[in-house]
Amino acid sequence: MTDIAFPINCFAELPTPFYAYSIDLLHQTLQTATNAAGPDAHIHYAVKANANPVILQKIAKAGFGADCVSGGEIEAALAAGFDAKKIVYAGVGKTDAEILRGIDAGIGCFNVESAEELEIIAALASERNKTVRVALRVNPNVDAHTHKHITTGLSENKFGINLEALQPIAERALALPSVELYGLHFHIGSQLLDMSPYAELCAKINDLQDSLSKNGIFVNSINVGGGLGVDYDDPDKNPIADFDTYFATFKNGLKLRDGQTLHFELGRSIVAQCGSLISRCIYVKHGTVKKFVILDAGMTELIRPALYSARHKIQNISATEGSPTETYDVVGPVCESSDVFVCDGLLPVTQRGDFIAIRSAGAYGEVMASNYNCRKLHPAYFIN
Ligand code: LLP
Q1: Cβ(190) to ligand 1 under 6 A?
Q2: What's the pTM?
Q3: What are phi and psi of 329, to 5 degrees?
C-alpha cells in the first residue's frame, strides 16, 4: 500500500500552508473503485469534492464521468478533459446561463430538482431546438444518519422532489417535447460508513419503480448519488474506502429493469485520503491551563472542523518516532474562535517551525478554501 505520510525533506524549504496530494494513492483509489464497480456501473466523480485541475485530469483520464453542480464546475470538467456526454448536472438553483451552457456543451443529463426548473430547462432546450435528457432528483426520505449539514435525502429539503410530487412531474416531463425523461436521481447524504441507509434506499427505489411502471413510466437510468465515507481516524490503516461493500450493496439491493443503467456520484471516497494540508507551527502558546499549537493554516484552508465539527488526524511530521507527547488545542490564525482543528489533541511535543500535516483533506478541503482575512493559500504539490 502506498505510504501517504509525506516525507518531510521533500518540502522543507516550501512556504506553508499548502495542499500535498499523493498521485499514487489517487491512482490506486481510482483503480480499486473501477474494479469494484464492475463494467456496467458508471461513476461520475463529484467535482465539488476537489476541483484542482491536476486531480480532475487524472480522474477524467481514468474514464470517470463528472457530477457538476454549477456552470463553473461544468467548465472545469470540460477543461480537464471529461467527456461532455458523461457529465451530469445537479443543483437547486441552476441559472438560465448555466442551463444553456450545459445544453450547448451537450452534457449527458440534467438532474432536475423541481417542477419549476423542469419548465425552464424545457423552454431553453426548445429555444436551442434541442432535446435534452433529464433525471428527476427524488427525495426518498431515507435518513443517512450523518451530520445534519450533509444529510440531504429527507422529505422536506431544498434538494429534490418529494415522493408524493413525483408522478405528476414525471408525466409533465414525458409531455414536454424538448426533454427526454431519462432517469431518476437520488442522494441521501455524505460520509456514510454504515451501508444500511443504502440498503433502505435500494428498497425505496424498487418500490418506486414498481409504482411508476404501473402508471406506464419507465426510465433508462438510476443514479444513486454519492456519499461513501472514509476513515478520518486512521487514514494509514484504511487509505482506500470500502468500495467492494458499497457497490455490492446496490448490486444486491436494486432490482434494475432490463436495459437500465446504474450511475454513482462519488466525491469524498475518491479524493479524501490522497490529500493532506501541510502547515507550520508558528507559536506554541502556554495558556493558564491549556497549551495551544498555533498553525499558519486555519479554517480558511480547511473549513470542515469549524463548519461540521469534523475530525481530521493531525500529525507532527517533524517529530521523531517515540518523542514524548503533550496535549494541545491545535488552532489556526484566523480571527474566529471556531478556527480550531482539535481541542485537547495528543501530539508529540511540538515546537515553533515544526511541520504539521492535517490528513484526509483531499475532499472538501482546498476546494472550500477562502480568502477571509485576506489570506493566501499556496499552490498544491503532487507527490508520486
Ligand atoms: N451527489 C450529490 C447530489 C451531492 O449532493 C453530493 C455531495 C455528492 C454526490 C458527493 O457526495 P460524496 O461522495 O462526496 O459524499 N462539504 C461537506 C460535504 C458536502 C457534500 C455535498 N454533496 C463535507 O466536507 O463533509
Answers
A1: yes
A2: 0.96
A3: -90, 125
